[in-house]
């Protein structure tokens, strides 16, 4: 079986509506991308939950998939009519049947975090059997180690976790930070997330890695303090959660924060300086890691 794939040039102001119209007219899938991606004119777009995206790409393209025997031209024309726009420019190519599972797996290679810490998908051989290998596959929850914010937190844990310390991973996603802390020698480890699917994924990933870590929703978080609290979320929730997160850190304990854009570092550091002696921020590809020690 094969498919037709169209790459359609659109104005960013109508891209979302046009993609929806394509789906209504019989398209199998439609994804909006930056038409200038991979060039010097590429625009990074950042947004946070509950906040509107302030800008869109100057030029967009829609990658749309169609059945092999459908009238692709008719569907594109119908979508353009529904959106009251002129017929856009587009190109068409044939997409052959493939082993999509194997193709997807080939895109995820082991990730080296440090000399002793690797993230390895379950279908790969561990690059270094003597290293600490986190067995983690891409899934529904955020956190495979490829994003700079996750990498920054893992590097901090690798450098600072000592045997027996207690760790709270707030906004645990896939559970990767909690699992890493446990494999690095931490004692009691708890991961918390607002998404039940993330909690389920974290439990499964902990079992896959043969570590004993607990995971729960925020309402079930015990009123306890920890030696280390790590929160790899986003700046907006970190602004709101500062007092709560600080209350879970023992006097003299450490906090680690990420999901923060480089331009937001000073503001977030000032907020957390109410409770912590803050370290110098660390940056990676436009993202920031903040850390600090709780005042006694």
First and last CA, distance:
66 Å
Q: Which residues form runs of ≥5 with pLDDT under 50?
A: 48-54
Number of strands: 15
- As for the CATH topology of the largest domain, it is Rossmann fold
InterPro entries: Ribosomal_L11_MeTrfase_PrmA (IPR050078), Ribosomal_PrmA_MeTrfase (IPR004498), SAM-dependent_MTases_sf (IPR029063)
Binding site for S-adenosyl-L-methionine: 150, 171, 193, 232
GO cellular component, one term: cytosol
Keywords: Cytoplasm, Methyltransferase, Ribonucleoprotein, Ribosomal protein, S-adenosyl-L-methionine, Transferase
Textual characterization of the structure:
It is a single chain. It contains 8 helices and 15 strands. It is of the alpha/beta class. The strands form 3 sheets. Strands 8, 9, 10, 11, 12, 13, 14 and 15 form an 8-stranded mixed β-sheet that branches. Strands 2-3-1-4 form a 4-stranded antiparallel β-sheet, covered by helices on one side. A 3-stranded mixed β-sheet has the order 5-6-7, covered by helices on one side. α4 runs parallel beside α5. It is elongated, with a radius of gyration of 23 Å. The chain starts with a strand and ends with a strand.
């Amino acid at each position: 079986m094969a498919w037709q794939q169209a790459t359609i040039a659109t104005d960013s102001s109508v891209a979302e509506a046009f993609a929806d119209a394509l789906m209504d007219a019989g398209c199998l899938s439609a994804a909006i991308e930056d038409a200038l991606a991979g060039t010097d004119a590429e625009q990074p777009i950042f947004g946070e939950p509950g906040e509107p995206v302030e800008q869109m790409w100057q030029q967009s393209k829609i990658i749309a998939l169609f059945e092999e025997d459908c009238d692709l031209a008719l569907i594109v024309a119908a979508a353009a009519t529904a959106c009251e726009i002129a017929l856009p420019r587009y190109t068409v190519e044939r997409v052959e049947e493939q082993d999509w599972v194997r193709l997807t797996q080939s895109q995820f290679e082991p990730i080296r975090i440090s000399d002793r810490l690797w993230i390895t998908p379950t279908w790969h051989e561990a690059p270094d059997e003597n290293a600490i290998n986190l067995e983690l596959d891409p899934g529904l929850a955020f956190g495979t180690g490829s994003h700079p914010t996750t990498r920054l937190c893992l590097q901090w844990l690798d450098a600072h976790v000592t045997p027996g310390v207690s760790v709270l991973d707030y906004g645990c996603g896939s559970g990767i930070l909690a699992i890493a802390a446990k494999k690095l020698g931490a004692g009691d480890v708890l991961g918390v997330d607002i998404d039940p699917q993330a909690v389920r994924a974290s439990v499964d990933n902990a079992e896959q890695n043969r570590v004993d870590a607990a995971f729960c929703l925020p309402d079930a978080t015990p009123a306890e303090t920890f030696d280390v609290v790590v929160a790899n979320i986003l700046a907006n929730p970190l602004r709101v959660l500062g007092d709560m997160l600080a209350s879970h850190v023992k006097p003299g304990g450490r906090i680690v924060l990420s999901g923060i854009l480089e331009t937001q570092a000073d503001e977030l550091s000032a907020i957390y300086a109410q409770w912590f002696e803050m370290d110098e921020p660390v940056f990676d590809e436009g993202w920031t890691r903040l850390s600090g020690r709780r005042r006694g």
